[in-house]
Amino acid sequence: MTFDLEYNSERPLLIIPEYGRHIQKLVDYCVSLSDKEERNTMAKAIIDVMGNLQPHLRDVPDFKHKLWDQLFIMSNFKLEVDPPYEVPSKAELLEKPEALPYPKSASRYRYYGNNIETMIDVALSWEEDDKREALIFVIANHMKKCYLNWNKDTVEDAIIFNHLYELSGGKIDLRESEEELTDGKNLIRKRNNQGQKQKNNKKNHKNRKR
């Protein structure tokens, strides 16, 4: 008795491995059919089976459209049927996406985060009044807190004011201001208290589950 064994190393690579080799064989067989009506009937049957194998896709918009696109991809775009959607082109599939630009970073002061420049831009767009001044000091305090998150030592307000002056392109100048920012110890204490509250909330949540 002899066995006709197939080894994975001798098999062709699966185009979409998620559907398995049996579906790929059905697709290959559908391509080989000479009668177009038979191909249409079998293609719809394959789509139904693919949908059953990927039930999580049912919540995806254009669920059927996605399955038909995958069917044509698995056939290497050789399947000639009458789909309910436009047939995707191979060139479109192989087209490289546009390169994404690197995100802007806050100069060399990366510990302030990328959003600090957006906050500064918002403050500069406001009219010069008490509201804008209050926002500027909120930004400065936030910068001080970020600084302390990465630098464990204390920091003088003058350093924060100099950094804010540089990041704003010289448009926000608090270097001669007599106002003081929140004490660094209080900022660190608030951070620690927030972390402790999160830990307690997680513990309480686990206890409720038990």
Break the fold down into its secondary structure elements and pairings:
Elements: H1 20-32, H2 36-53, H3 63-74, H4 90-94, H5 115-125, H6 130-150, H7 157-167, H8 184-209
Helix pairs in contact: 1-2, 2-3, 5-6, 6-7
SSE pattern, N- to C-terminal:
HHHHHHHH
Per the principal axes of the C-alpha atoms, what is the gross shape? Answer: elongated
In the predicted model, the low-confidence regions spanning at least 5 consecutive residues are: none
The overall pLDDT, averaged over residues, is 83
The number of distinct β-strands equals 0
Structural class from helices and strands?
mainly alpha
The percent range for strand residues is under 5%
Query: End-to-end distance, in Å?
Result: 60 Å
The main β sheet shows up as:
none
Instruction: Compute the number of helices.
Output: 8
Rounded to an integer, what's the Rg over CA atoms? 31 Å
Helix content: 55-70%
Summarize the structure.
With 210 residues, the chain is mainly α.
Task: Describe what this molecule looks like in 3D.
The chain is mainly α. The chain is built from eight helices and no strands. It has helices spanning 20-32, 36-53, 63-74, 90-94, 115-125, 130-150, 157-167, 184-209. Helix 2 (36-53) crosses helix 3, helix 5 runs antiparallel to helix 6 (130-150) and helix 6 crosses helix 7. The longest helix is centred in the C-terminal third of the chain and has 26 residues, at 184-209. The radius of gyration is 31 Å and the shape is elongated. The mean pLDDT is 83.
